[in-house]
Amino acid sequence: MMRLVQRNGWVAGLLVLLIILLIATKIIQPDFGASGVESLGRASVPFAFATAAMAIVVIAGGIDLSIAAMMAVCSVTAARLMVGAGDGETVLIVILVLALGALMGAINGAMVVLTRVPDIVVTLAMLFVWEGTALLILNTPSGAATQWLRDLILGSLSIPGLPERATFIPKSLVFVVICLIPFWFIMHRTKLGLSIYAVGGDPVAAFRSGVPIGRTRIIAYSLAGVLAGLGGLSLTMSTGIGEPIPGPYLLASVSAVVLGGVALSGGKGGIIGPIVAVFILRLVRMDLTLMSVDPNVTTIVEGTIMVVVVMLGGMLAMKGRRP
Amino acid sequence: MVHTQTDLPILDAQGIAKRFGAVTALNDASLTVAKGQVVALMGANGAGKSTLVKILTGALRPDGGHLKINGTDRSFSSPGAAREAGLVPVYQEPSLIRDLDVAQNLRLGDTPVEPFLHWVAALGITDLDLHEMAGDLPLATLRILDLARALASSPDVLLLDEMTAALPSDLVEKVLNVVREQADAGRSVIYISHRFTEIAQLCDRATVLRDGATVGDLPIEPGVEERVVELMLGAKLTPARIATHRAHATATGPARLGVRNLAAGSRLTDVSFELHGGEVLGVVALEGQGQDELFDVLGGFRRARGGTVTVDGAPVTFRHPADAIAAGHSLVPGNRADALLMSRSVRENIAIPRLARICNWGSISMRSEAETVTAAIERLQIDTRAQGEVRRLSGGNQQKVTIARWVASGVGTLLLFDPSRGIDVRTKRQIYQLVREMAEQGAAILFYTSELAEIPQACDRVAVIFNGKLVEIMDAADADEPRLMRAAYGLTSKVPA
After folding, report:
1. N or C end: fewer C-beta atoms under 10 angstroms in chain B?
2. A168 CB contacts (<8 Å, ≥6 apart)?
């Protein structure tokens, strides 16, 4: 039990911060309730997927700057194919879009591994490639989304027997959690996950332990691609159309990954921390908006929070090491 | 020692060659290991041991030669493949991943847990917690875990590279016993070590490498140490003396650099010497005996744990390399890449330590910079055809640049850490020449080298460090290679004066 707390100290700290922020929100805005949580959840979904994708690549010792652009490609592909699609076809479209995400991720990873050009350069280049691709598929926001798919993330979970107002759990949150469970499992309960941590933490030692370095990196990028696919789908699901211009997900995902306790040098951290960090950053932004703070000041506050939290965390970690 | 010669050798490597660009690391290395044998693989620093190990374990591909395992030709494309063929290494550096706990590390390498725990206990670690992060464990424990992990996979050939280097003596004893038992049970072991006592205790045969080729393969018997030392050095047992004019270090006044009972890090425990202006003091030590720590302390990269350093008689503590430079210390580190700005020009690299002096209210005085730099380049005969970017120079010329920067700025005390590693003979000569010239102009020079032949050519006196302690200090004139080698292996007491 002690160990559980120790290992997950960072996540626990973030959860406490999140709860404090939720209470603060309730104080600032006394009528903050189910609908507030629902819109917070829905707005956070694409951020959550982008962040989980970035977290996996960063843990593997890389970085992928093209995640937001891949999300755009997946979003427009889904929106375009779903125009007039039946319920059954939609299932196929979802599978296709996720496969497309995996393919794009694999291309990124293969280019990083095979060309030996630094990941930051390759994925910056791919950012432009995927951006262009998205605009070729759909050059203005349009398309459609099948209703049952949209219903998966719109509204709150209704529990039979309870009045609608008493249900605080937004469906979007449930959707995110269910989608991320397999990725959490891969990262923490499989040899592939261990290999990803090993490759990011110490490639030489990993190589000597018999881990195929290149293949593991490519798989990590593909996993990120699948998550970008989920992120793109969720964009189309919540708006009902496809958006070819990538949203502000790239920098937001890097921020959340760092705030979530993943070391940019690789090999450290998890998926849960960054996801909690997404909600913290979204909530801070919402609170500042509710307090009608100048939006320009909002970004200053967000940046400051990030540096201060990461610095404090680093100091605590150092204290803990040398008692 | 009770082996039947009828067995096929379990591992038979013949004529292994490996080149890295222009450098030949191995040209004809051979190693044969029979079932149940413990073979010591020996060689001076840079003889090619680590390259051979990497080839045998699949971390590098050879350019030539044959490798047979149990009589069939094999070539390993990865460490995993070598492992599957039964060849399991324990490398010199710990190879558990620091950010994973022990249990996760085991799962990563598919190590069976039960035998692993058995070996951990047999090797004398009683309080292992599998959920401890590898990065939080002490170095000695990590080494033992590496060995236990290798043993748990029941290897046919176990390859131990400096296994005992970081271990306290009680653990060393346990390790040697376990390895011996393995051999008696029919497993083979390749044992790399600098410690003759362990080799005598453990090994059946010794294979000696020199300059990338196998030069001897002899049974371990009393007195074999001398023969091995001879083989490691080659035929030239009589020292080639260079008749340079030696500036006599007449000890007038306090020494330029005084070191008293210096201890630093985990390896340097007790070193004392005095170095006067005009003198070159050689330092000889096997790898990892504390010489790195000594140079780090003198260069301001690391704080001492105990003892004192004096400069011109006054005690000093360096908190930063800048303090050391201000006290007149100039360190030329062993790794050139640590010292040079690889993508900048020769000119800039030479001028950097001097910038403070040639700056004129913050802007660099280009003319004064150009003058000093040109003088230094001429003096060292640096090949300047590729001077736009230091990375494009050859290793020898890069090394000259690291020294030239201190020639340009003038030195009080020059700390040279293995400046001739991986450099051709001609450039080496030039470097020795330069070292002597600088000494004659009054510089005090501390010169660590892994090549013993350099000592009489460049130094006035030699200090030998073994196991963190200064074990002997002698005149360079008396320092022939066998004597240095014995001292470096801690065999001093056995040699009649």
Report:
1. C
2. A33, A34, A37, A156
